[in-house]
Amino acid sequence: MNFLKKQLFFWTLLFIATNSISQNDYMKQWPQFRGPFATGIIDSTDLPDSWNAETGDNIKWKIDIPGLGHSCPVIWNDKLFITTAISSSGTGALKVGLYGQIDSDNDTSVHEFKLYCINKNTGDILWEKLSHKGVPGTKRHTKASHASCTPATNGKYVIAFFGSDGLFCYDMNGELIWEKNFGRMNAGPYDSPTTQWGFASSPIVHENKVIVQCDFIGESFIASFDIETGNEIWRTSRDEISTWSTPNFYNKGDNKQIVVNGWKHMGGYDFETGKEIWKMSGGGDAPVPVPIIANDLIYIHNAHGKYSPIYAVSPNAKGDITLGKEEASNEYIKWSIKRGAAYMPTVLVYGDNLYNLRMNGILTCFDAKTGEKIYTERIPEARGITASGIASDGKIYYSTEQGNVFIIKAGTQFEVLAKNSLNDIIMATPAISENNIFFRTQHYLIAVGE
């Protein structure tokens, strides 16, 4: 893992330079969806290989979280943040597993949209804030929630986003600093404009700026806001269909850009101005995974409809870099595959390898630098996987919707090291902090650690 450590060290130094915190402090944090830099990785954590939700073995604490939310835990020092949406009717359905219906859930009752701050060591609720109360701005898919956007924090502020129901900034003590409402943003399938699936793109925070990607059936845009005041710095329109992906941040030298997924418009925008730097098309028509940055490449993948590609893009790309029909690479796209990318889970780039897990449990390992396929195996008993994988100390953690967590050995040989159950549906990607792993299930928040 020497290459990985060098890579994370580079990103850490970069973050320190722009945020004035120590390396040791930042490496303890899990500040956004998929953790530091959206990598899904924190090493040297000594996580347990086994636990038992029934007997309590290696379960540090377990608390009820009311309502329904697929947002993931984010952590800064001892504070853990999570959102939820609580229906006054209590009738909202959650239908998991592998199925193809496009139905919306019909619960149109008043909801309470809340942000919780929890002591990560004890599970005690430090504070909870009601961000908004009302009928949700849109319906949701039967597999989705009205609290699917993961919060983001920089240790001074925490951002909660509920799509059509508002963007909220709090300080670490729960005081509301500012809020915004972008109006109704119906994120649904492009070919069925009356169908409503719910919003899921999470905010990110960098250099005291909040970035949101709002792709929906309407006037899509990406925008930057000052985290202290909420003032809009820039907003750039996007010719795009609904996208449920979270943006990411690339910063090296003078190249500072926000990287986004999409169908018509995958690409990069200048971090300071919002001006488009590069773009490409040619992917699945319901983009969900977050772009990942590693090996000084940008990995973008998506699936749905006819296409399910993975692209490895140079961050020096300029203009329209879309591949020709018969091309697999060009000046800026270093390698690609046409079909086989995951639809919901984001790939994991760990060490020299890229791990691509599809919802049916098929895991493919690629050489991350060349795209060469190393192996394809199936995680047993997987009947639906939405959460993205995370990794620590040579082990990869994959959660299934049925509540099982598989630990896979990282490397070029497929090996299942352990299987543990949490006895509840898992839709959210877990978080790592120090020697603990935190799981958000349908009903609970659970801290696992020795």
Question: Features of this protein?
Answer:
2 helices; globular; Lipocalin; single chain; 450 residues; 35 strands; mainly beta; 5% helix; 5-stranded mixed beta sheet; 4-stranded antiparallel beta sheet
What does this structure look like?
The protein is mainly β. The chain has a domain at 42-64 and 345-450: Lipocalin. It has helices at 2-19, 23-26, and strands at residues 59-64, 74-76, 79-87, 104-105, 111-119, 125-134, 140-141, 152-153, 157-161, 167-171, 176-180, 204-206, 209-214, 221-226, 232-237, 248-252, 255-260, 266-270, 276-280, 292-294, 297-301, 310-313, 319-320, 333-337, 348-350, 353-357, 362-367, 373-378, 390-392, 395-399, 404-409, 416-421, 431-433, 436-440, 444-448. The chain starts with a helix and ends with a strand. The mean pLDDT is 93.
